[in-house]
């Protein structure tokens, strides 16, 4: 489903386990499950637990560090990048896993209603 190497998934889950957000069980019926209070864990906590990967796909260029144009552009943009990252981290801190679950459940209910409504008009 994620179209990624299983090693990446295992490393990610290990980071979450180390912070106490998930636990795993081996064997038949095993797997991963949440082991935290969803109201206490934010997306910022998860971001930190998985190693704080780069938030922005764009950033300062470093192909030619001696280039004066590159230096000027980097200097002009650095504060903007820093501010954007801090805003994003702040917003991640506002979203708890409990909020995500509630939103997901509401979407499932709404989707079920939409599907049933389509069946009533087409079936």
UniProtKB/TrEMBL annotation:
Q: Name one Pfam family in it.
A: Rrf2
Q: Which GO cellular component terms, listed alphabetically, does the Swiss-Prot or TrEMBL entry include?
A: cytosol
Record-linked InterPro entries: Tscrpt_reg_Rrf2, WH-like_DNA-bd_sf, WH_DNA-bd_sf
Query: GO: which molecular function terms?
Result: DNA-binding transcription factor activity
PROSITE patterns reported for this sequence: HTH_RRF2_2
The lineage's top-level taxon is Bacteria
Instruction: Output this protein's name.
Output: HTH-type transcriptional regulator YwnA
Which species is listed as the source?
Allorhodopirellula heiligendammensis
| GN (gene name) | ywnA
């Amino acid at each position: 489903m994620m179209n990624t190497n299983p090693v990446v998934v295992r490393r990610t889950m290990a980071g979450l386990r180390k912070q106490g957000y998930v636990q795993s069980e081996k064997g038949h019926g095993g797997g991963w499950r949440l082991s935290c209070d969803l109201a206490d864990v934010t997306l910022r906590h998860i971001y930190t637990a998985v190693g704080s990967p780069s938030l922005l796909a764009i950033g300062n260029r470093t192909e030619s560090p001696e280039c004066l144009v590159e230096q000027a552009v980097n200097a002009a943009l650095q504060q903007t990048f820093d501010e954007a990252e801090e805003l994003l981290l702040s917003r991640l801190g506002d979203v708890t896993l409990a909020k995500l679950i509630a939103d997901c459940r509401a979407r499932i209910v709404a989707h079920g209603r939409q599907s049933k409504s389509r069946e009533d008009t087409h079936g």
